[in-house]
Amino acid sequence: YDVIRKKKVIGSLNSKFIKDNDKLVLHSILEINVKILLFPAYKFFQETKEIWKEGEFISIDGFTDFEDDREYKITGKDTADYFVANGMDGELKLDKNIIPLNYWNKAMLDENEVFDTQKGIVRKIKVKKLNNDKVEINGISVNTEKYLFNASKNPKDKGPFPEYTLWYHDNELLKMEFKNPKDKKTIKIIRNDWGQ
After folding, report:
1. What is the pLDDT of residue 184?
2. pLDDT value at position 68?
3. What is the pLDDT of residue 196?
4. Is the CB of residue 140 less than 8 Å from the CB of residue 132?
């Protein structure tokens, strides 16, 4: 995926799905670097490794580095009774069936609460189905299902959780966008390998 702001690519989201015997490993890296007049204006980095088994989210290991020196090491693992996670709010014992706030997984939209993989916290979510839409990628017009996604604010958040618009084709995420709360500019994240 390309991360785009003001028609310029400012970063990338790379996700790899790796089969490991009976497990599925999702390794994702999101990197954003905005420069204004050659000077760094905004940086963000997140790397996560999720492990799924038989459709169940069983563990996560991640690191998030925000532009303002906030850094979070995120871990989580299924135990006999809970999903035990560590992040911004310390150790949390969560419902074993919680799934991560990860937009690739369209099934997340059916949940009431999700595990925020950037900060290691739980957020309540609200999703609204919008009219179907067409998205153009690499000169190809693709029919999509479109959704509006909102999540609850945590008291330690530096600003509001942005409202996301999400586009899916056959349960695959093609595009998402949100307004940066700081400068109100729209950030688009769009598949760059569609049709290749």
Report:
1. 82
2. 66
3. 66
4. no
42 or 115: which leads in pLDDT: 115
Q: Supply the pTM of this predicted model.
A: 0.89
**Long-range Cβ pairs for the range 51-57 (8 Å, 24+):** 51/23, 51/24, 51/25, 51/26, 52/23, 52/24, 52/25, 52/26, 53/22, 53/23, 53/24, 54/22, 56/97, 57/83, 57/98, 57/99, 57/100, 57/115
The string of pLDDT tens digits covering residues 23-58 is: 999 999 999 887 777 777 778 899 999 999 998 999
Identify the bridge partners of residue 57 per DSSP, sorted by sequence position.
52
Residue 11, classified by CB atoms within 10 Å of its CB into exposed (0-12), middle (13-18) or buried (19+), is buried
